[in-house]
Amino acid sequence: MDEDKSPDEFRTYKGRNLIQRPFFLIYALLGVSYLLIIIGFVVALSKVATVSSEISKMRTTLAKDPFQHDLHLFPCGADTRQWEYFSGKCYYFSLKAVSWHMAKAQCEQQHSQLVIIDGFAKQNFIQTRTRNERFWIGLHDLRTEGEWKWLDGSNYRTGFQNWKQGEPNSYQSRDEDCGQVWINGEWNDYTCNSESYYVCEKPLPVKPTAASKRT
Ligand code: BGC
Ligand code: CA
Predict the structure, then answer these.
(1) Which letter does DSSP use for residue 2 in this model?
(2) Which of 54, 137, 149, 188 is deepest in the core (most CB within 10 A)?
């Protein structure tokens, strides 16, 4: 049949073929693009579905056990701003000055005890919060003059000590049988009936078990 076509017709035929080819390519590319867009859309949708199902699972877990969430954010309890966390324990810095015995009793009422300073790290933590104010600590020589003891029976003699130079001194022959942190956080012995602020220390609150929550 081509033989019947004039050279002009032939050129036209061949020319149309040449012109049509790029259109085919464009259609093919558009088709592939649509396909890719649809695949991307499906992948994105499935990701959104996965993330939202994870969020709803987390919400359910937290709704069942809010304590878990709070404990993470506030290791010393979500219901109070008074207990501060430091290195695995909780600390209370009193806002009122009382005698050493009263301070001891008030810590015990709060299921804690006057702080035991057993090293530089804790000393540093305590002194940055007490500044140069007097705060009672869990140290005394009430039983035998000069025999200092920590309330929890920790080793005093060869353990960490941070007495101010010249202390303990039972100043002016007064009976200074109770320990406190004072200027620069250094320790001073002071008359137990005098009033000082105090620092209590307690372990982290324990996460209630399923059994204890039922009772
Ligand atoms: C002394 C301390 C004493 C304190 C009593 C200071 O001047 O150096 O040893 O405990 O007075 O306020
Ligand atoms: Ca003293």
Answers:
(1) G
(2) 137
3-state secondary structure of 190: strand
Which residues fall inside 5 Å of ion ligand 2, going by CB?
A: 169, 171, 176, 188-189
- Over the chain, what is the mean pLDDT? 87
- Both 36 and 127 in one domain: the answer is no
Within-domain flag for 212:
no
Give the separation between CA 105 and CA 203, rounded to whole angstroms. 17
Could you tell me if 188 and 182 are in contact, meaning their C-beta atoms sit under 8 angstroms apart?
A: yes
Residue pair 145/123 in contact (Cβ under 8 Å)? The answer is: no
The total number of structural domains that make up the chain: 2
With 0.85 as the threshold, say if the pTM is over it: no
125: helix, coil or strand?
A: helix
Nearest CA to ligand 1 atom 7: 171
- The residues lining ligand 1, judged by C-beta closer than 6 Å to any ligand atom, are 167, 169, 171, 176, 188, 190
Q: Cβ of 98: how many Cβ atoms within 10 Å?
A: 17
As beta bridge partners, residue 42 has none
CA 96 to chain centre: 27
Residue 181's pLDDT is: 98
Does residue 172 share a domain with residue 122?
yes
**Phi/psi of residue 172, nearest 5 degrees:** 50, 40
Domain of residue 37, residue span: 1-66
